[in-house]
Design brief:
Layout: H1 5-10, H2 22-59, E1 66-69, E2 74-80, E3 84-90, E4 93-98, E5 102-105, H3 110-122
Antiparallel strand pairs: 1-2, 1-5, 2-3, 3-4
Amino acid sequence: MWPFEQIAYAMPPGGLGGGGDTAGMLSGFLPLVLVFAIFWFLVIRPQQKRAKEHRNLVAALKKGDEVYTDGGVRGTIQRVAETEVTLEIAPKVAIRIQRARVQDLVRESRIKESKDDDKEEKD
């Protein structure tokens, strides 16, 4: 005799589930659904939100904006084209980069910095 014959004969009729128990199947999928829901709210949704904000930022670029690139370069936009922007990173030094490589706007303005420099020189 084969060792598995006794196990096969000992099984209840209808297989391991004991019939078409839909409540048992749903309770088996419930942890997977919960993991996906948690993953959605903690990872996917915030990432989509950041991507949308970046698309809006890139679409709203204009001449004179101070920006940071994804490589960490800070500059002032001198010219905006369809797929490129020209940044002045130092006096008389300009580089061309793809618009999508602009990471963030600089929050303080150049006018504020120049006023602060003038105050320091006067003191």
